[in-house]
Specification:
Layout (H helix, E strand, L loop, with lengths): L3 H38 L10 H16 L1 H8 L10 H30 L4 H24 L20 H36 L2 H30 L9 H19 L19 H7 E4 L12 E5 L4 H11 L1
Helix pairs in contact: 1-2, 1-8, 2-4, 2-8, 4-5, 4-6, 4-8, 5-6, 6-7, 7-8
Length: about 325
């Protein structure tokens, strides 16, 4: 049995990790809320119907914002009667929430890469195979790895529980798969983005490459920290960074989508707008074309907007103006 001072140290460590994660999640939400209103709720320029990416953005953003409220309770509640705390339900709920948000991230990144490769079935098939394998492994880890805790396992009358060694190994395997998928997608994104930038100096691809480097650097480091913590730390410290990784993933996915709605990428400055008529086949697969509303502009004044959408009337106007 650990001493009281050790239990206090473990509790503070777990709560510190949670505070960092939730602070990041909600701070980023509040500082980007005005952008969400301007770029998502009230689209710039002509009136547009909500597309699948808009709904995906709302699902990811607000599931993470609202869905983490019970987990905040899990990390910070203290009771004089710990037997009445819904520990098992909270732990299961948190695992399911992590699973759903990771699925959201995987789906978004797979579709993003699929579009980047001109809807290549080979690329899609490879990514789906890896993604489905990780999905199956995750379900297995949650169902088979379900652990029954006793009240005495809780740290100082809280809902904070240790992670069993076998359970930690299973979850480490899941996160190793997630890391492998992230690295695969990052490699594919880097290859195609650099290839297009060298050929066409595409502005939207520079944005994608910049966001991709930032996203995958942060996510890879956080995922690696989860794997290390699960494999080498003590039972109460195993997986402490999972909550950080999950909040960071949800935040960065929202940021990636917000950046694709940024009006500044619709009107880049400088001589090279980054769009040419020979690029249209690629960009139709990848985005919606948005008319900037200024009269007399040709195809080079039509810039890229929402990810993986296409509106036939916009495409027709582009093809006609290109003739």
């Amino acid at each position: 049995m650990a001493s009281a001072s050790e239990q206090v140290e473990w509790m503070l460590r777990m709560r510190f990790s949670a505070a960092v994660a939730y602070g990041l999640l909600y701070y980023d939400y509040f500082i980007t809320f005005t952008r969400e209103i301007k770029w998502i709720w009230i689209p710039q320029g002509r009136k547009r119907r909500a597309n699948w990416m808009t709904w995906f953005f709302f699902a990811n953003r607000y599931l993470s914002i609202i869905g983490h409220i019970p987990t905040i309770y899990q990390y910070f509640v203290t009771s004089n009667n710990p037997l009445r705390l819904p520990v098992s339900r909270l732990l299961t709920y948190h695992e399911v929430l992590i699973f759903i948000l990771q699925v959201f991230a995987g789906v978004f990144l797979i579709i993003r890469t699929y579009a980047l490769y001109h809807k290549s079935k080979l690329v899609l098939g490879a990514l789906l195979a890896v993604g489905l394998a990780i999905l199956a492994l995750s379900v297995w880890a949650i169902v088979v790895g379900k652990h029954h805790y006793n009240a005495e396992d809780a740290l100082l009358d809280t809902c904070l529980m240790p992670t069993a060694k076998d359970q930690a190994r299973r979850f480490a395997g899941v996160y190793a798969g997630i890391l492998a998928l992230d690295l695969l997608i990052f490699g594919l994104t880097m290859f195609k983005s650099v290839q297009h930038i060298r050929r066409d100096n595409s502005f939207i691809l520079r944005v994608l490459l910049r966001d991709g480097v930032i996203y995958f650097s942060l996510i890879s480091l956080s995922t690696l920290s989860v794997i290390v913590s699960l494999l080498i730390l003590d039972p109460y410290s195993r997986g402490n960074t999972i909550v950080v990784s999950n909040c960071l993933t949800a935040t960065l996915i929202s940021r990636l989508i917000l950046n694709l709605h940024d009006p500044s990428i619709l009107k880049p400055t400088g001589r090279n707008t980054g769009f040419t008529t020979r690029d249209s086949a690629y960009t139709v697969d990848f985005t919606t074309f948005i008319d900037t509303g200024r009269g007399g502009e040709n195809t080079q004044d039509m810039q890229l907007s929402q990810f993986m959408m296409s509106e036939p009337d916009h495409i027709l106007r582009i093809e006609e103006s290109a003739k």
